[in-house]
Each structure stands twice: as C-alpha cells, then as structure tokens.
Design a protein that fits this description.
The complex is a heterodimer of chains A (114) and B (114). With 114 residues, chain A is mainly beta. Helices cover 0% and strands 56% of the residues of chain A. In chain B, 0% of the residues lie in helices and 52% in strands. In chain B, the strands form three sheets. In chain B, strands 2, 5, 6, 10, 11 and 12 form a six-stranded mixed beta sheet that branches. In chain B, strands 3-9-8-7 form a four-stranded antiparallel beta sheet, with no helix packed on it. A two-stranded antiparallel sheet of chain B has the order 1-4. The chains are: A mainly beta (114), B mainly beta (114).
Chain lengths: 114, 114
C-alpha cells in the first residue's frame, strides 16, 4: 500500500532563517505531488505541484520554492523565512494517470516563524 | 475557474443527532467532488468522492453525500453523529479535463456536544 511521510512534524524557526521540509511517498511510481499551506481558518492553499522529476509549477508567488530531486521526493524550501510563512504545510500525492484521482495527504508539518 | 463554498464555519450537533454539512461549487460542467476530514493537527483523510453515476455516494465512517446538479451542491450527511466525528470537514472540486488540481472550500468545523 502507499504511504506518504513528512518531516519534521513540527518546526520553530526565527525570521530570516532557511527552511527545508521534506515529503516522500512509498508504494507508487510517477505520482503527482503537491504542497499546500493551511492557515488558521482559511482552508488549503495550493503552493506547488509537480508531475515529474524536476518539473515544478508554482501557484502563488511567494517566498517559498519547491524541488523534486527524485520521483517520490518533494522538498519545500525557503532561503529566508518571513513571519507570514507560519502555518501547517501538507504534502499530497495523486496517481499520474487520468483526471479525477483523489489526493492522499501526509500528516503535515507545523511551522512557526518567530 | 472552479470554486467551492462551505457556508458554515462552525456547526454544533448533539451526539446521536443527524448532520448535514453544506457544499456549493461553481464550475462550468460537472466536476469531480470530494469530502475530506481533518482531525486537529493531522492530515486530510478522504471520506468519499463523486465521479459519475449514482448521485448518492456512500463513504467511510457512515457518511454519505448527494450530488445535486441543479443546485450545484454536494452536501455531506450522517444519520447519527458520534463524538469521534468532531473534526474539520473540507469539500473539494476537481476539473474533469486538464491537470487534476483540487480546489478546496474553507472548511466547516464540527463540534459534537454530549
């Protein structure tokens, strides 16, 4: 069966520090991968998605970037964190074939920027 | 572009009572429709999905949802709520063509009173 991992689970970082959040998927090949941010009371905002290694699409211009160095690895990064980057970050995957396939979510990373 | 409205931010239901969470969408055709549930500090779990066919969809944990094309709605229901159902519920829509991004509503937080 497929599983999705995220780490770290929680992170407290000072403003201006770098960020690296990692997401890995097991049990599937060539998944679509997604990064979402969830701010309190605001639902899920899609940040990036990827259909393959090295292929990244950005949904919202911001202080963050994403990379996909391996088929089942998706990384969210920042060179200098802002207070507004605080939130709950969720990684998700879906099957590559066709449309309408549901997305499966990881457990999330709670990021607090102080 | 598709959009999703969940008009109720919070709903409180007594344990054992019935539940209906509202979801309205805007899309040029019939989209793919999903309901997810999120417990505090956790990722999202898929409850049910509508792709085609029978407009009454059964999901996990005793939930069901009905797609009503004329009302552009996909309301979630449960006949008898349990205390463990307290969580946040998200409705989502996905396009039938093109890349399979999902658009999420802002969520409804369900509180269950004894």
């Amino acid at each position: 069966s497929q599983t999705i991992h995220q780490w770290p689970a929680t992170l407290v970082q000072p403003v201006g520090s770098p960020l690296s959040l990692e997401c890995t998927v097991e049990g599937t090949s060539n998944p679509n991968l997604y990064w979402y941010r969830q701010a309190a009371g605001r639902g899920l905002q899609l940040l990036f998605y990827s259909v393959g290694i090295g292929q990244i699409s950005s949904e919202v211009p911001q202080n963050l970037s994403a990379s996909r160095p391996q088929d089942r690895q998706f990384i969210l990064s920042s060179k200098k964190l802002l207070l507004s980057d605080s939130g709950f970050y969720l990684c998700a995957w879906s099957a590559l074939s066709g449309g309408g396939n549901e997305q499966f979510f990881g457990p999330g990373t709670r990021l607090t920027v102080l | 572009a598709q959009s999703v409205t969940q008009p109720d931010i919070h709903i409180t239901v007594s344990e054992g009572a019935s539940l209906e969470l509202r979801c309205n969408y805007s899309y040029g055709a019939t989209p793919y429709l999903f309901w997810y549930v999120q417990s505090p500090g956790q990722g999202l779990q898929l409850l049910l999905k509508y792709f085609s066919g029978d407009t009454l969809v059964q999901g996990i944990k005793g939930f069901e949802a009905e797609f009503k094309r004329s009302q552009s709605s996909f309301n979630l229901r449960k006949p008898s709520v349990h205390w463990s159902d307290a969580a946040e519920y998200f409705c989502a829509v996905g396009a039938r063509t093109g890349f399979q991004k999902l658009v999420f509503g802002t969520g409804t937080r369900l509180l269950v009173s004894p």
